[in-house]
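Dear all,

This email documents one entry for the complex benchmark we are building for the journal club exercise. For each entry we list the sequence lines for every component of the assembly. Then comes the predicted three-dimensional structure of the complex as a token string, followed by one or two observations. Please use this as the template for your own entries, and keep the labels exactly as they appear.
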Amino acid sequence: MTDEETGTLKWGVERRLEFIEFRLFWEGGVNRADIIGLFGVSVPQASKDLTLYQERAPGNAVYDKRAKRYVAGDGFAPVFLKPDPAAYLSRLRSLSEGLTEPGESWISDPPAVDIAVTPRRRVESDTLRAVLDAIRDSRSIEVHYQSMSRDRAAPTWRRMTPHALGYDGFRWHARAFCHVEGRFKDFLLPRILGERAPGDPGATGADDRQWNETFDVVIGPHPDLTISQKEVVAKDFGMRDGKAVLRVRYAMLFYVLKRLGLLEDATKLSPRSQHIVDLNRPTTLAALERADFKL
Amino acid sequence: MTDEETGTLKWGVERRLEFIEFRLFWEGGVNRADIIGLFGVSVPQASKDLTLYQERAPGNAVYDKRAKRYVAGDGFAPVFLKPDPAAYLSRLRSLSEGLTEPGESWISDPPAVDIAVTPRRRVESDTLRAVLDAIRDSRSIEVHYQSMSRDRAAPTWRRMTPHALGYDGFRWHARAFCHVEGRFKDFLLPRILGERAPGDPGATGADDRQWNETFDVVIGPHPDLTISQKEVVAKDFGMRDGKAVLRVRYAMLFYVLKRLGLLEDATKLSPRSQHIVDLNRPTTLAALERADFKL
DNA sequence: TATGTCCATATACTTTGTATACCCATCAGC
DNA sequence: GCTGATGGGTATACAAAGTATATGGACATA
């Protein structure tokens, strides 16, 4: 049986058809020139691709003679990708932050975008590789770590056994067993200044209770909002009966609360900027205590 | 001149070599089976690719007979990609959040990851498309918008002319001229429940002063930190002489301040969770006022 | 009307990739 | 120490995908 009969396409061809569909859906149209520019194929090949796309997805692409390009047809139904707004916006963010090459992202003329970024120390390639290696092989490494302890200014070498990565919304950290203190801790990747000496592990991820056990944060709309405002906030956060439950690892609890603005007593903050409150604050504070974060 | 002489590679081949390099660098090794699995090529072709990679990047790949796969050589020097830890972590995040297909991301066995996410109402495909179209074509649309005004509970149809997108760290919004109020505003994409009736624009992006003009936020370490802690924070944020300047659009000022924890008086917050303060708070408050955010 | 642009298609040719077969080295298990 | 399983390399004949080049058509603009 040939490829043509089975409908199977070569990887490269499928990527191009996917690209055509992406452009039709999100960018309002596609050109032979677009295909040529991105994939470096010849003019006739780009024509063939467009023809093939029309065979595989009838009605999706119609030629707009005025604009001299294909635009999405009325009853557009994606065949090669499941269009996900979150995925598109994620691409747009990567592109805007310079993490993706313009060609790679498939977005031709991105809209004007601004992102509330905050400048942060960067992570070194070697650091990330060393941590990933240690996690993969279940081994320990020594890291030259710049901690935030009250008086120790200079970075020190400490052995640790990482088993996971965490992201708090700003920075990445390694979740690791600290051989010096004999307990699990977070090591911020940007504060690791060097790494050396892979060795035997001190503990496994299964031993990390704070990582493996979760706590339920219960949130609700800020009490000072009007009834209609509360309804909007409830929809924003997918609340039912005025509340929503977030299941969070103890090891991530501090970060989630900080991100949600719930570390302090949110009822005392202006509802204009703080839309939600913690409906179970005493329990949460106890959980934070258990998670080793003393405020 | 042939391709072989110029060193030019077909798009598909180059992707595969890039993939080989990616795996060598970040994932500790690569296999024929990996290439076959991801790109659907035949066994001999995968062999050829590995051979070709070794020709193009001598010494980067060495065969580990024990592990039966290629691993990165000692003097590994990337040829097909510039390894960027931020890009890798961004991929990892997309993968963990389910925004990327496992195959597409090139990360074979991702480490355990947790991300401090917060549940949010989703954006509709049609909404995003309509807004992107309007931005691209400089047109207006009517949106069925659920606003947060104090008493208006029901969503209303309002005409607006979007010219940019903004991301506050949590949600995306359209920066747009509001035809009802006759001024530029932010429309949260998840609160747009419907869209219709493209029409003439009400104003252009160039008219949006709050978007086009910027304000400098000056930050410094929290005064209650010890000297050594301040040094760490200074390095974290790239401060010089105890301060750093962030240039921010007025239209984004509120979001940036919220993200940095600087909406309230940060000196009154615990330095344990709030590491930085606004060194110019009165000016910032005036700027917020100018940005139309009345706290 | 002339010109430029963009799409489509045809032909002859090159490159890339497949299917199949066979060989080699290493390792785990008997 | 043999044996089979696994993973890599390579050769040959063939299929497919893609290129270069040329030609023609539709449409917008000057």
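Observations: Chain A has three domains: 9-83, 125-208, 213-290. The radius of gyration of chain A is 26 Å.
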